[in-house]
Amino acid sequence: MLVYDMRIIGSEKVATLLYLPLLTEPTKSEAEKNSEEGALIGTSRQLSMPVFISPARALNPHILVCGMTGGGKTYLTRSLITRLVLFSKSNAILIDFTGEYLSCAQDILATPGNLEETIMSKDEHSSYFDLHYMNEQEKLMAAHGILVKIATLMRKRDDEHKKRIFIVLDEAWKLVEDSRGLEVIIREGRKYGVGLVTSSQLLHDTSQTILSNVATVLVFRTTNVKSLERLSKSYNLSMADTSCIKELGRGDCMAIMQHVSGFKSAYVIEDVFGIPRTDIISITKGKKMEIKISVSEFDASISSLCGQDGVLTIRTAIKNGRIDLSLLVSILLKAGAERRLILLELNKMGFRHSDIADSFAIALSKIGVYGGKG
Q1: pTM for the complete prediction?
Q2: Which of 25, 171, 274, 325 could lock 285 by a disulfide, CB 3.0 to 4.6 Å apart?
Q3: Quick one: 6-270 is in which CATH superfamily?
Q4: For the chain, which residues make up each domain, given as ranges?
Q5: What does the pLDDT look like over 44-79, one tens digit per residue?
Q6: Are the beta carbons of 45 and 270 closer than 8 angstroms?
Q7: Residue 64: Cβ-neighbour burial (10 angstroms; 0-12, 13-18, 19+)
């Protein structure tokens, strides 16, 4: 039996210890019902029950995936939309700002463009819009036009159009949040069988219109205080819930669902399907701080700071999948990366400003105060 000294561990740690997500985890019978037209995304932590995202049983079909960079948002979104299309009699519209959804489009056999066939047809048909080659202004204009057309066609759907439609907009929704088409989809999509699947790293700057109209939220680890406060207020989470979110490991997320029956559930999903636990790099600070990030996301982040040569240099310094934060900063500075940009990238990964400052101090003491730019 473990005994904790409450004077030492603090109220947040106590909340985590007392967290009992099994009270709202799906039972066997509920899992079986949801499996009929839902998408399997993982297993619950306490009861190891399969967890299905079932739009028909949610208050509305909209889905928000959120959490820090490297947590697995894009992996889960791709896996989720693929399963919804292949196993849940749904069609999808992928609006791709970055090129990250090309493989997903190929998996679901999405064709370029044809919105009318995707929305109005009774048959299987998904559409893919590749915007990543455009400049920012062109992307905005194209996305606005697509959303307006979706909203217009959506309102023409009748009861004969049984297929549910999911629109994947990812983090880029923030660039078009003032779109009239997007607002119509969010507010009216439920009655036309149209759902929005989007993601966000920082919830405190997420539109209240979206938060007020999303019934399913999948939250990966985040320690951002403002985001946790916004999430807690919007979905009536307890201190135990938010404390648990801070402690989530890579590949785990909390599922917050508002059901059509009026019941709300919040519990942890482990081993989210579609998120590989291999090929992960751990960035450590001493023995107490560790951030895990996928190799592909790590490489992309480092490459943006100092190019591919910097990636190769840092790879040689990684031992057993781990690298110390101060060593990472030191190598980046020597490679000529700007200090301001290093800080921004590390902050995106989830490191606190105090941890980054400490690591900068250690790195600069080793290479000299004039190392790096900025």
Answers
A1: 0.68
A2: 325
A3: P-loop containing nucleotide triphosphate hydrolases (3.40.50.300)
A4: 6-270, 280-367
A5: 888 888 888 888 888 889 999 988 776 678 888 888
A6: yes
A7: buried
